[in-house]
Amino acid sequence: MIRLDHLAIPVRGSARSRDWYTYNLGFEVEIEIPDRKTVGLKDEVGFTLFLEESAGEVSPSCKFALQVDDVESKYRQLSARGLKFDKAPQKLFWGYGAELRDPDGYLLYLWDERSMREKGT
User: Fold this and answer.
1) CA 19, CA 21: separation in Å to the nearest integer?
2) 79-82: long-range contacts, CB 8 A cutoff, minimum separation 24
3) Average pLDDT value for residue range 96-102
4) Same domain, 94 and 119
5) 56, 78, 99 - which closes a domain
6) Mean of the pLDDT values across residues 29-52?
């Protein structure tokens, strides 16, 4: 068996990114390493996203597809908190979902199984 278990990305502020991912997307803090300005955030199935504070410029180099329970509901919830979406839930080249950016500009695709199956093809 092979599965992706951890991913590390550079961020401008590890505490700011930690707060954004935990508050908006429900990630849980798994580990914090203050002297390295690094935070490990775990999702519901055990995947860990490491946020490593960078002294230099941060150039978002990857995109994340995040499965949610209901993309329409998550869109309404996050929009009500003031988050701006690049794209509201709709049919996109990758299927049905919504797109937004985290504080460092990483593009996040939000999707759910039902909407993807019913509207994504």
Assistant:
1) 6
2) 81/24
3) 98
4) yes
5) 56
6) 96
